[in-house]
Amino acid sequence: MAKKNDVLKKKIEKKAEAVKEVVGEEPAVEPKKITAAEEPKKIAAKAAPKRISAKETPKKITAKEEPKKIAAKAAPKKLENKAEPEEKEVAAAVEGKKAVRKAKTETPKAEAKPKKTVKAKTETTEEKAKPARKAAKKAVEEVKEDKTKKAVKRPAKKAEAEAVVLPFTVEEGIQKMNAMNIFYTFDEYHRLLIENETITKAIEAIIDECKLVDFDRSVLEVLYGDLVRRVDVKTSDFKAMKKTLEEIMNRKTTSFEEDSQLYHDAFYFAGKLLEYGERFKLSTTDKLKAWTGVDMVQYYNFYMDMALKVLPEWADKDVDIYEDFMSEVCTQFTDLCAELEFRFQIDLADIQIAHGFYSKGDSTFEYLLRENEIKDYIYYRYAHAYVDINLDKAKWIANRAFAVVDKRYVYYPLLVEIANR
Predict the structure, then answer these.
(1) Closest residue by Cα to residue 376 from 421, 330, 326, 418
(2) How far does CA 58 lie from the centroid of its chain?
(3) 411 backbone dihedrals φ, ψ, rounded to 5°
(4) For residues 168 and 230, what is the distance between their CA atoms, to the nearest angstrom?
(5) Suppose 364 and one of 58, 229, 349, 403 were both cysteines; which one would form an S-S bond, judging by CB atoms 3.0 to 4.6 Å apart?
(6) What is the pLDDT of residues 347-376, one digit of tens each?
């Protein structure tokens, strides 16, 4: 047994030595525990950005969430006009309290009363103030309603007056009058209304002109009732035109641009007057003078002054327009033709030469020289038209004039001056 034990001890010792040999190899194992590869695993550079990432922070504080919390639309909902009555009630309550305080100052007995009674009084004043405020609001609303009703009623009355249905129209009335052997046109009825200013006077004028006896005026009354609705020119328009025509004739100018605008304005109203003459079949300007209070000869003379001043610098087509227009004026109004035809022709010839239409201008001057006995003015205008264009021709015309013009004539000195240039 002792031998067995010894053997066992030896085996145990061998094993212990083997274990010691293994333990003695620990210095080689320790570097495995503390290695450079294990430390980066514990503190990895990749793990840090996962915990503090730039993408997670904007999710917590985003610009889109702020406008949802503080929306611009929520503000008007809180401050709606419906809240105004509450503010008015608060203001009324404050006013009631002020009234109670004034009552205290006026009545010294009220000062000795306890606070409870004061609260009761404030409540009573507020209760009294509420019906007063309601009554005031109703009164204001009633006034507003009355004003709106009145504002609506006025155009309604005019519309009703205009909507009155007449038995017949102007055209039908003219046919009825034709059946009575009274042959007036629409414009002639219109002219009589302008001349006489009222329907009653216009009807009386028709009765007097046609020498009607026991005439039923109802036809003419209905006729004029429809005519007044449809005409675009009334007596008041001619009275207003007087101020405009006088302003045009008295306007002062300081530049060619202002002269051009003045000519344009004068031409416009000269055309309106011609239009009225054609519409109302006026052969003279007497009625136009009576309606406007302006002398038509004077006005058209002024218009021609501006034409002679401006048109030499304007386009050729403007000269043609002037020629056609003044020809119509002289054709429509006999009195203007007698007064202005000669001037119109000589001015037109002067303007034509200024625009280079020499043959037209020369033929017009030659025609005027043949048709008129007093020739000094015509020769002077003829020669003067060429002074700045062809001085030799101007001198030739002046010398030609001396065959019939001598010192007795007004324009003889001016012709001598041109001939001696």
Answers:
(1) 418
(2) 55
(3) -95, 10
(4) 14
(5) 349
(6) 999 999 999 999 999 999 999 999 998 899
